[in-house]
Structures are given as structure tokens and as C-alpha cells.
Amino acid sequence: MHGLIISALLFLVGQTSARVLSNKYDADRHILLSQEAELFLGSGVKLTEDEAKANDILMHWKNKEVDEAFANPEHYNFSKHFFAYRNDVSKSKVYQIIKKMPKGAALHVHASMMLDVDSLLRLTYEDHLYACYGDGDLQLRFADTVPAQLCPFEWNLLSDLRNASGDVAAFDTELRKHLTLYTDDEDFQNSDINTTWERFEKVYITVAGILKYRPVREKFIYESLKNFYDDNVMYVEIRSGLHELHELDGTVHDRMYFATLYERVTEQFMQDYPDFIGIKLILTSSRSKSPEMVRQRIELGRRLKKENPEFFAGFDLVGQEDRGRPLSEFLPLLMEAKEDMDFYFHGGETNWFGTATDENMVDAVLLGTKRIGHAYALMKHPMVLAKVREKDIALEVNVISNVVLSLVRDVRNHPLASYLAFGLPVVLSSDDPGAWEADPMSHDFYVAFVGVASRQADLRLLKQLAYNSIKYSALDNKGKIRLFNVFVRRWEEFVKDVIANDSLEV
Amino acid sequence: MWTTILCLSIVLFSVVSQDVYNNVVKERNDILHRELDMMLGNDIELCDSEMKANDIIMDLKRQEIEGGFLEPQAFNLSKHFFEYKDVVKESQLFKLIQKMPKGAILHAHDTGLLSPDYVLNVTYLPDLHVCFEENDIRLLFSTNTPDETCETQWQLMKDARYSSGNVERFDSELRKYFSIVIDNPSEVHTDVNSVWLKFQQYFITTGAMFGYKPVWEQYFYDTLKACRDDNVMYIEIRSVLPELYDLDGNVYDSVETAVSYKETLDRFMSDYPDFYGAKLIYAPLRMVDAKTVKQYIEIAKEIKRKLPDFFAGFDLVGQEDKGSPTKDFLAELVEARWELDYFFHAGETNWYGTSSDENLIDAIVLGSRRIGHAFALTKHPLLIDEIVKRDIAIEVNVVSNAVLKLVEDVRNHPLASFLAQDLPVVLSSDDPGVWEAEPLSHDFYVAFVGVASKHADLRMLKKLALNSLYYSTIKDKDKIAHDFEIRWTKFIDSVVRGNVFY
Ligand SMILES: [Zn+2]
Ligand SMILES: [Zn+2]
User: Fold this and answer.
1) Same domain, A139 and A268
2) Total beta-carbon pairs less than 8 A apart between chain A and chain B
3) B383 at the A interface (CB within 8 A)?
4) DSSP structural state of residue B107
5) Distance from the CA of B253 to the center of ligand 2, in angstroms?
6) A373 CA to middle of ligand 1, Å?
7) Cα–Cα distance measured from residue A328 to residue B2, given in angstroms and rounded to the nearest whole number
8) Distances in Å between the alpha carbon of B164 and those of A368, B159, B170?
9) What range does the record give for the signal peptide (chain A) (predicted)?
10) Which one, of B62, B381, B453, lies nearest residue A351 by Cα?
């Protein structure tokens, strides 16, 4: 149809005088632009009168930010590493609005990296935590006596080390570095993908040591949910491998126990915060494990699904994709499991093209994955893109994660821009926000909205992204309606608040 | 042939039946094959010797990519161009691509094509005067001390050089004005404006020196020579067509400058009859008002009248984010579009929804024959459709986009998705001399190894070369295609025999 308009336009251009022509041309240029705007994600959302008012406020601040940066790119944050501008974000009015905005669901987060680092640091004040400082590494473990695990130097009670240090603040600052990737060090910000992932995995190992202790894991889950709830997220699908948990005396609980713990804590949380509607679990296995070990994990998935069908959402494989095994190596057992459970595969979290990693997206789609984690390489794969549209497979996009984990620097080059332009089924998420000191969701929404999306993208995009997170969740219809109702109520409050907020006045 | 296509013989240890499994594997391979069949180059059929050459090329390519895949810190092409531009010259694949006939350069700016060493040599010519100012130098040919103001004083370059006490150091300091290559680009070229400032400074500094008619003509002659040496057979060159001068006080206007190009071309062609030729795209600066654009258009029309076979068309140049958007000149450009062919720069930006981004729409609707860069195109689904429908070629300059700060890791360059969708792409190099690249070989190498699919092979390379002929403004395409085929066959032969590396 737009082709016709252009042809008609060209025909007309041949006939009349230049001034009239360029008026006509101007008008039709406008039509072409607005047709493109109609394809854009969120263009179908109709704003109420109040929403339109809130949108004017939002867009005033957004345009101000974008136009200032357009004129002065040297001050533009989003072309830099996230760590270079993280602390400036809170000054942005757009961010302040987004922070308060109800965001629906978080559909791509990993269990151990959900909590902010300060809360994590507080958990290291719990009694009986032993530390083993190695060559730049740190292992932590709760135990009533010196842990049996190997330590290249020696295990000490962290509380002893802390007290003996003479300067608790300095001690904690050092300790904190083991719990987060966040750093001012520009060399790290510029390091290659393997170096970044190696550091990421180190942080994971340190954090995971604390979280094996049942009482601390319990607090961790509760506080993580509180973090997301405070960031106006009402439902979370958590990816976890469900490791074993232990008590102080060494008693070990199996993985099924971990699942029930999740349910118990969530129930408690929902009693305390009734408009949080719950969590589901996406069971994961590391993709570098052998097929036999993956098979066992899938078996666990089957049991979970049987015993807690409400709680169990599906299965995924995790870990650095370029270095792990491709999905195709697990094809027979995944095809078998496909009959019993839903998949939510990571796929194409890479900037390689034509390698096993980006071809994972083909397998994910053929295995009937409900959503794809990242799908960063999608624009290079027209056939997979067609399948994504045809089967309405949601793309779980985590922009900040892709920056921190060395796929892209300037987020304006993030493929999300194209996904939005094509109106693909996108949900935004945050992957491991605790690991890089991002908000549970607000930073990701903010960066996507101001840094990646079109200058013209407005409140309709934000609302559609929240809608999508409900639509593409693993909730059944009843659950979706419940979540939707909470969302709608909170959204109305949010819109009123934006209009009434003096500090946002234009 | 494709390593990632699964074979059907994987041993099953599950209850999934062999049939079901085979079907999925078949479907998987189907999708991958169909995607490969969609890629640019899919319509090229390789003959036997080409297939042999392809095996050699793909072995080299696989080694480079698989090395990078396993050890990303060692992968050159995800680093800054300045870090690897010399290192890659040692690559066998690079040497091979250098020898490969690449067809035409369709997007390059006339005074940005030759290396800083070449420009440094120009400063050895007699009658060149220099004025050292605070952060800059000014250069001018003149028999006597120039009348132009100078913050310090004009002196003969020769005198300045030999009184400096250290000619080598003098020259290496001087050379810095002729290149934007530095050791620490990530610290100095921190954003698109800072690198563009440096980039534009090169053209300002060299402008008056190149405007000396004998130098102007020699530079163009040597540009043609450099292209020929890089196995390019034809070029469409963009020029702002400045006024030229000589030592007798004559001044030559834009039209005369175009004529001097044509005469130089004729001289070159009689020296090197195997070169196919050159055409001119008049591409003055975009940071002007509509009245000036109207004057530009008049100049373009006059050149077209005078040199109908040499003149290819019209464009506007300069940093798009900062310059006037094309839509400011719509009235003028709409009126002239029956008389002039357009080759607009458009969408050379990573902004989205801004005026520079929307230049893409204007370029298309104004009937641009080709579009320079179109970096922002992947964000515009409707415009992609239009480009395909109207068969508008995209002139992609990967190295330029990396150096001028649009993209860091070239694997994120939108060219990857252009190639995957088989959009009408031609590769070019923009201003290779300014960043010390070869006229076209670096751009081909980076696109082939760093941007395109690991599976993209000789068919893509050949198609890119053929595209550059097909989307040129050459009238007799059959003849040039025939000439190309002869060179190509010789190249393939040398690859198969292993002579290409020597
Ligand atoms: Zn993830
Ligand atoms: Zn250019």
C-alpha cells in the first residue's frame, strides 16, 4: 500500500509546479512516516484522555533528553558502557516516571542474581559464615565448624576477618567487589566476552556459596521478590537449576525441597503483599553439562511438573552460549522432553553469524520454544524471524545484560530497535540485574525506551511492553486475568500520579 | 560442506523414534539451507575451478573465524580498526582479497583516498608555503609569500623543514595532520562529534594544498592508479569540486575543476588502457541553505551539459546529524530530479527517529539511484521493502562506520542483516586514505570475515563485485561484465594454482 502512495506521489510530482509539488510531497512523506509508525510495537494501544496527558509529560522529558544528546553526543550516556552512567540515571525525569510505572512481569531472570548487592552484603553478616580468600577468588560457606571443602589457603569466620581488619567499611568495600561485576575500571568495561564471562562466573560462584545455606536462601528469595515488587513488577518467572541446600549441621536437602521452599516463601510474600501475584520456575541446566546430566535435570523437571504443575513453567539451558554445547547436541532428549514440558530456551545470545551459537535459534524454534531468551542474532536470520512471527514466539530482550556481557556497546546498535520497528513480540527483562547493580527492571526499561527505541516511541510502547509480559507469561488464562487486573488498577494510579506530580511539570 | 548441518546418524538413546528425529533434523537443515539460499550471492553458480578456489578461500576463512570464536580476545575484527589495519595485511585471506578483482568503487570522496604518506610527499613539492598556527597548519602553493593572514608567519615548507633540525621528526609531526589514525582511539575519539571534527580537519588542512591545480590533477591521477593497483577497474568519485588555482593567479571554478578531472582521466586512460574509467558525482556540503543548494544544482546541470559522459549525478555531504536534513531542500531537489540522478548519503547515523534517520525516506522518494550508507535502514521495515522494490543499491562502508564511531564491533554492523536478506548491496570505502586503509581491500576483507555469515563464500564476494558494476552508471554493462569475467577467471586460476599469495 505504501508503494502505491509513493508511485502516486511520483506521478503527481511530474505534473504540477515545484512549490505545489513539494507541499504534496511533504504531505505524502508524512503518510509514509506514519505508516511506519503504525508497524511499531505499541501502535495499537489507544490512550485515554488521562494517559494522553501523562504521555505529553513523558514525551516532553524524553524529547528533551534525546534532543540534547543529539546536539551534544559527547554527553550521551547510552553510547557508553552501563557502568559509566549508571549513577547518573536517577536524575532523569524519564527514569523517575518509569521507576513508578507498573511493568507487569519479569520473564527472564536468573535466581541467584536477582538481589541488589547491598542486601547481599547484609546477608554476609549472618552468623557462621566462613570465607576462603584465594588468589583473587573468594569462597563463602555457612557451617557450624570449619567447612570440609577444599581451600587453597584457610577457612576463617568472615566475622573474625571483618573484626580483625580494623576498618569494617574498607573490609566491606573489598568484600563487595566479589559480589558484583560493577566497577569503574575502564579496562574491564572494554574487555572481551570471555574475560567478562569469566569474571561473571566468579561472582556467581561467590554468591552461590552463600545461597546454599537454607535459612539465608529463604531470606534471599523473600528479599529478591521484595526488590522486584518495589520496582513495580507483579509477577516473576525465575530461572534456576535448583541446587541442593544445606543446614548448619551439614544436613542436605534435595532439589525438590528447594522447589517447595520457593513456594513456601512466595506464599508468605503474597500474604504480606497481596497484589503480588506469584512466581513460576523455569528449571535450568548448564549447557556445558553432558547429555546424561541434562537428561537427569529434565527428569527432575518431569517430577516437579507432576508434583507442582502450577509452579513449574518449563525448561531451559544456560551458560555462555558460545562456549557451551549447542542445542543440537541435545536434540534427541529435548525432542523427547518436548512432549512433557514447555521450553524457554536461550538462543542467539551472540554476535557471531553462522556459528553453532546463532544457529541455536533454529533449534529453539523447531523444538517449539514458547519464548527465546535474547535472540540477539535474530536480524541475521530471516527464516527464523519468519517463524518467530508465524508462531508468535516472544523475544526476551535484556539490553543492559548484552552491554555488560560484551555483545554491544552503543545500545543504539542493539537489534531491539529493529524488533520494535517490525512490531515483533518483545518482552523486556533484566537477566541478572543484581550482578551489575541495575534495578530489577527500571534500568532496562529506561535504556530501551530512551536509548534504543525511536525518538517518537511513547507511552503506548511502554504499556504494550507491560501487556506483552502478561500475554507471553506461562500463566494460565485465569492467572493472566488476575495479573492483568492488578496491572490495570496500578496503571491507572500511575497515570494519575504522573499528571499530578509537581516535580514532573513541564 | 557446512559443518553445522547435522548428519542423520547421531546415535539415539531415547525413545524418540528415528523417523521423528530424522524429520526434525531435516527441517533444521532445511531452514539453514533456505537461509543460505537467501543470502546475497545465492544466484551465483560456481564452475569447477571456482569451487576449488572456494575451498581454499573457505579454509582460510574458517581458520580465522574459528580461531576468533574460541579465543574472542584474539579476534581482530571486533577491535578498533586502527589496532588491526596493518596486522591483517599478513593474513593470506587478505592478500587473496587484494588480488581479487573487486569491480567498482561507487562510494568514495576524492581527496580522502590516498594515504598520509602520499600526502606527506606532496609537501615536498616546490612553492609550498606553510603557516604554523596554534593547533593547526595552513598550506598554500605560491611563488611569493602568500597574502593570506597567518597568525605566525608564512614560510616555504622547504625552509621550515630543513631549519627544523630534525627532518624525520618534522615529517612525522606533519604526517599527523594527514591521517586520523592514533594509538588510543577509544580515549580520544570518544564520540561521533569528536572524531568528525578530526576527520573534517583533515579536509580543511589539506584543502588549499590540493586546490593547486597541478597537485589536484596528480592526486586524481594517482588515485586512479591506486584503485587499479587494488584491483578496482572503475570508480564513481564524489567531489565538492572546489575552486582551483595556479601560480599565475588563475582561479578555476567548479565546472572547470570537473573539466580538469575529465582531462586527467583521459590522460590516465591512455597510459592504462585496461582501466575502465571514472565518473563524477558532484557532492557539495549539506550544511547550507536552500538558496545555495539551488546554486549547486545549477552547477551540476552545467557540468552535465558540458561533460555528459563523465557526469554521473548529485549528492550532498557532511555529518548528517549536524547538517541540514534533506527535507529542507525538497522544493529544489524535487524540481531538479528529472535532470539529475541522485546518489544521496542517508541514514549515516545510529539515531532513530531523528532528522538524520529520516533522510532515508527523502532519499528514496526523491528517486535516489543508490543510497550512501543507509546504516539506519534495519529500523525501517517499509523502507527496506521500497529499496527492494525499486532496486536501489545500498553503498555500505563498514570501516568508515567503525572509524567514524557508528559501531564498535563490526559484527553488530547492519550489513550482516542486509546480506542475509540479499538486499542490493555494494561495498565501498568512503575515505580510506584518511584511516590508512587500502582503496577497497580492507572493506572487502572486514565485510567478508567480520560481518558476513561464517558460511558466506566466494559466491558472495563475486556477487558484491558484480553488484558494483551492475549498480554503477556505466552504460555498456555487458562490456564491463565481460572484461570483469576475464580478470576473474585469471584470478581464480591463480588461486587454484596457489600463485595468489606471491
Ligand atoms: Zn539469561
Ligand atoms: Zn561518504
Assistant:
1) no
2) 199
3) yes
4) E
5) 23
6) 6
7) 14
8) 73, 8, 7
9) 1-18
10) B453
Give the model's pLDDT for residue A408: 95
Maximum CA pair distance of chain A? Answer: 92
Q: pLDDT digit string (tens) for A412-453? A: 999 999 999 999 999 999 999 999 999 999 999 999 999 999
DSSP B10: P
In a domain, A214, yes or no: no
Predicted confidence band of residue A10 (pLDDT cuts 50, 70, 90): very low
On whether both B254 and B160 belong to a single domain, the answer is no
A394 in the same domain as A348: yes
Q: Say if the Cβ atoms of A354 and B454 lie within 8 Å.
A: yes
Are β-strands B154-156 and B128-132 bridged in parallel, bridged antiparallel, or unpaired?
antiparallel
Element (H, E) at B268: helix B254-271
The secondary structure of residue B338, as a DSSP letter, is T
Q: Which residues contact B287 (CB under 8 A, 6 or more apart)?
A: B318, B322, B323, B324
Cell of B367: 528517486
Contacts of B35 in chain A (CB under 8 A): 381-384
| A351–B412 CB contact, under 8 Å | yes
Q: Which residues of B touch A335 (CB under 8 A)?
A: 14, 16, 20-21, 24
Residue B29 lies in a domain: no
Q: Percent helix, strand, coil in chain B (nearest 5)? A: 55, 10, 35
Q: Distance (Å) from the C-alpha of residue B334 to the closest C-alpha of chain A?
A: 7
Distance from the first to the final alpha carbon of chain A: 39
Which ranges of A231-355 does DSSP label H, i.e. alpha helix? 255-272, 291-307, 331-337
Domain extent, residue B391, equals 76-115+214-497
CA distance B303 to A182: 59
Query: Interface pTM (ipTM) of the complex?
Result: 0.92
Q: B353 and chain A: CB distance < 8 Å anywhere?
A: yes
Indicate whether A191 belongs to any domain. no
pLDDT digits (tens, 9 = 90+) for B107-119: 999 999 999 999 9
Q: Tell me: the pLDDT tens digits for A233-256?
A: 999 999 999 999 999 998 999 999
Q: Tell whether B218 is within 8 A of chain A (Cβ).
A: no
DSSP A375-400: -TTGGG-HHHHHHHHHTTPEEEE-HH
Q: Which residues contact B55 (CB under 8 A, 6 or more apart)?
A: none
Say if residues B240 and B285 touch (Cβ distance below 8 Å): yes
Q: How far apart are CA A435 and CA A83, in angstroms?
A: 12
Q: What is the DSSP letter of B400?
A: H
Contact B73, A194 (CB under 8 A): yes
**Least CB–CB distance from B378: residue in A25, A379, A381:** A379
The CA B280 to ligand 2 mean position distance, Å, reads 14
Residue B212 DSSP one-character state: B
Q: Report the amino acid identity of residue B140.
A: L
pLDDT-derived band at A192, boundaries 50, 70, 90: confident
Residue A122 half-sphere exposure, CB side, CA atoms within 13 Å?
A: 8
Query: pTM score, two decimals?
Result: 0.93
Q: How far is the CA of A100 from the centre of ligand 2 (A)?
A: 44
Based on the fold, state whether residues B226 and B143 are members of the same structural domain: no
Q: How far is C-alpha B378 from the geometric centre of its chain's CA atoms?
A: 20
Question: For B266-279, how does the pLDDT look when each residue is reduced to its tens digit (9 = 90+)?
Answer: 999 999 999 999 99
User: How far apart are the C-alpha atoms of A396 and A345, rounded to whole Å?
Assistant: 10
**Is residue A366 domain-shared with residue A324, that is, in the same domain?**
yes
Rounded to an integer, what distance in angstroms lies between the CA atom of residue B5 and that of residue B339?
52
Distance (Å, whole) CA B437 – CA B415 = 19
DSSP string of A426-447, one letter each residue: EEE--BSGGGGT--SSHHHHHI
Which residue has 597574502 as its cell numbers?
Answer: B147
The span from the CA of A308 to the CA of A313, in Å, is 10
Tell me: do B125 and B260 sit in the same domain: no
